[in-house]
Design goal:
The complex is a heterodimer of chains A (161) and B (87). Chain A is mainly beta. Chain A has no helices and 12 strands. Chain A is globular and about 45 Å long. In chain B, the strands form 2 sheets. Chain B has a 3-stranded antiparallel β-sheet, with no helix packed on it. Chain B has a two-stranded antiparallel ribbon with strand order 4-5. The chains are: A mainly beta (161), B alpha+beta (87). At the A-B interface, strand 8 and strand 9 of A face strand 1, strand 2 and helix 1 of B. Strand 9 of chain A pairs antiparallel with strand 1 of chain B, so a sheet runs across the interface.
């Protein structure tokens, strides 16, 4: 098993968040290299100039079953220097199909933070968020804000076979 | 805080300073629940009497459906779909 890192600064143009959930970083299984994946770390935070009105940004991670339209990003190996078997897509312009849709019904990880705050989460072994070895199944991170339209950075670290 | 937490989170906030919390991952739905210090355990979820794992408040009171069984079902459905598409 090897560890990889992917974030939405690795490819394409970061998309400004809006009042509805906007996908930032997605990692999915692919038929050609089918395997499960284990999400072990999440780091989120705003990147742009803070809004003059103090406000919050809501982040979530949910299950996705399609890629949507975004920029392909090759995950960086953190452990052994072998290519990831999972597919990375970042900075979506068309949202993927997400379990629970545009609501937070399907959120596996969610948090509302002040626009100037950042968060990191680490899973202990056995407590990772797992995605199945099914074509196009994976996890997607999304963000919204009722006030600010800046860009955010979402970084995933995950294991796959 | 947990004796054996399933995870750990750090929030860096200019107003609040650094906030640290443990977390656990529901073994039924895979949701992550953050555990603030001195919170009421009833608010967090419970323990499944079947698989003896920590579960989130959304899964409390529902039949045991371990995430491993769910993953196997999803993967079987995916394999069936791929086989049908290939015919």
């Amino acid at each position: 098993m090897a560890r990889y890192s992917i974030n939405n600064r690795m490819a394409g143009s970061q998309q400004a968040i809006t009042t509805t959930l906007k996908s930032q970083t997605e990692i999915t299984a692919a038929t050609a290299t089918l395997c499960r994946g284990w999400l072990v770390e999440i780091a989120v935070g705003a990147e742009g100039t803070p809004n003059a009105t103090d406000c919050n940004i809501v982040y979530d991670v949910a299950r996705a079953t399609t890629l949507g339209t975004g920029t392909a990003a090759t995950p960086n190996p953190v452990g052994p220097d072998v290519a990831s078997r999972s597919v990375g897509t970042v900075n979506h312009t068309v949202e993927p199909t997400v379990t629970g849709g545009a609501a937070f019904v399907g959120s596996l990880w969610s948090r509302s933070l002040n626009q100037r705050a950042a968060q990191q989460w680490f899973a202990n072994p056995g407590s990772e968020i797992i995605w199945p070895a099914t074509n196009l199944a994976g996890l997607v991170s999304r963000a919204l804000s009722p006030t600010t339209t800046q860009t955010v950075l979402v970084d995933f670290r995950y294991d796959d076979l | 805080m947990f004796l054996k937490p399933g995870g750990y989170t750090i929030i860096t906030d200019p107003d609040l300073g650094t906030v640290e919390e443990d977390s656990f991952t529901c073994k039924h739905c895979n949701r992550v629940t953050f555990v603030p210090a001195r919170c009421d355990p009833v608010e967090l979820g419970g323990r499944c009497t079947c698989c003896d794992a920590l579960i989130c408040k959304h899964c409390v009171g529902k039949p045991c459906d371990h995430i491993e069984r769910k993953l196997e079902r999803w993967e079987a459905a995916g394999r069936l779909f791929e086989a049908m598409r290939g015919e």
